Amino acid sequence: MQMGIWISLTVYFVLMLAIGVYAWRKSTSSSEEYVLGGRNLPPAVAALSAGASDMSGWLLMGLPGALFVSGLAQSWIGIGLFIGAYLNWIIVAPRLRQQTEEYDNSLTIPGFLGNRFPSTARLLRVVSAIVIVTFFAVYTASGLVGGGKLFVSAFGGSYMTGVYLTLGIVMVYTVMGGFLAVSLTDFVQGCIMMLALVIVPIVILTTGQGDGIGVAAERLRTEVDPNFLSLTAGVTFLGWISAVAWGLGYFGQPHIIVRFMAVRTVADVPKARNIGMSWMAVSLIGAMAVGIFGRAYAIRNGLDIADPETIFIVLSDLLFHPLVTGFLYAALLAAIMSTVSSQLLVASSSLTEDIYHTLLKRDATDRELVTIGRIAVLAVGIIAVIIASDPESQVLDLVSNAWAGFGAAFGPLIILSLTWKRMNGYGAVAGLVVGAATVGMWIALGLSAKLYEIVPGFIAAWIAIVVVSQLTPDRGEYRESKIA
């Protein structure tokens, strides 16, 4: 049985490495190619790359686990994310693609902010780079936790072996091929993830050991909770706000919005949006179905699921031939690796372009910057391993903290920098610092259980930007764009 699984996983690993080699030969001759793929991503690649790098192991572990435990009320997180992603494609994507090119061909989010607000350029680039590296170390760790749990649940192996294996494969193709490798592997991984999330719920409901939708629903109501399939039961107003507010995070996720900077043309953005949102709808519905109907299947068959976040892994092992099980494990690895690789690359890009190139060596050659970028990938990966070393870590908890940090620090900053002419550099710095600090303080005070920290962080950052910009001189830093 193990042999069939390993055959499928080996094919997947070889495919990822082959893409890395292709990208290494195709797109690593300059810093722009290594960091941004030459701004030449086709719409489908940009869309699925944004989606796959967004969802991570949370899609196949965190979300199904939450619904497995608490029922349909947990789906408000998915609903909020869908709305936020759509608004991100409408508000941010076309403007960011246009303006990052107009503002001196900015290659990173900190680089764009520095070019957009030259009065505080150096401070903005350094502070934003520090925020990116800090939160991405935590975010990357969440993916490695997922890899470790997969290795334990699927093979009974060591948790840290799974962490090291996950990081090792990602490191190879990311270091070799840069942004193009990450984007192409994301595309393939996104296809695998969506297919898996369609297959598993169907098999749960149609196999001889499963139930149809009606029988499964009745089983959940009678044997778990009469309100298990209610969207509103037990949901307080603050709880609802906390769940839906996950959508606010999209505007400030560097590893997602950097895809907007790399899409081939502004005219390609609507096509990419339609592809991306269709993929997201199918994937979210599939993930929620795994959690809900996985709970019904577990009850029917007397399964003791020690860790609800492993329900996808358990079902993959029980319901399928080993070759298919290996494919489904590859889907989970795809979800994890697509996000980890994106985060490592964005973090290393910030360290390279916004710290090394800006502060330490402004005359660095393209070849030198690519080398430094590769070293930075390794450094961030090592930090993430240290954070992920606790096997009791919960994927959803780690993701929620990092998601809130980015959403509050960068969300209002990105939206207003693209749309409000009066915003200035002082307001940008204030919003960045206040957003990140508010999230950190909220977590430290233990208030996250009452209200998700992104809500106060986002509001505080928005107010800080507006107030400080209005109280300080307008330096005329906004350039008119072709995008309205």
UniProtKB/TrEMBL annotation:
Example GO BP: proline transport
A single cellular component GO annotation: plasma membrane
UniProt keyword annotations, A-Z: Amino-acid transport, Cell inner membrane, Cell membrane, Ion transport, Membrane, Sodium, Sodium transport, Symport, Transmembrane, Transmembrane helix, Transport
MF terms (GO), sorted A to Z: L-proline transmembrane transporter activity; proline:sodium symporter activity; sodium ion binding
Compartment annotation: Cell inner membrane; Cell membrane
Keyword Cell membrane: yes
Membrane topology of the entry: Multi-pass membrane protein
Pfam families according to UniProt: SSF
Reactions the enzyme catalyzes: L-proline(in) + Na(+)(in) = L-proline(out) + Na(+)(out)
Major location (coarse): membrane
InterPro entries listed in its UniProt record: Na/Glc_symporter_sf (IPR038377), Na/Pro_symporter (IPR011851), Na/solute_symporter (IPR001734), Na/solute_symporter_CS (IPR018212), Sodium:Solute_Symporter (IPR050277)
Transmembrane stretches, start-end: 6-24, 73-92, 123-142, 162-184, 191-208, 228-251, 279-299, 319-348, 369-388, 400-418, 425-445, 451-472
Functional note: Catalyzes the sodium-dependent uptake of extracellular L-proline.
Family statement: Belongs to the sodium:solute symporter (SSF) (TC 2.A.21) family.
NCBIfam families in the record: Na_Pro_sym, sss
UniProt protein name: Sodium/proline symporter
Gene this chain is encoded by: putP
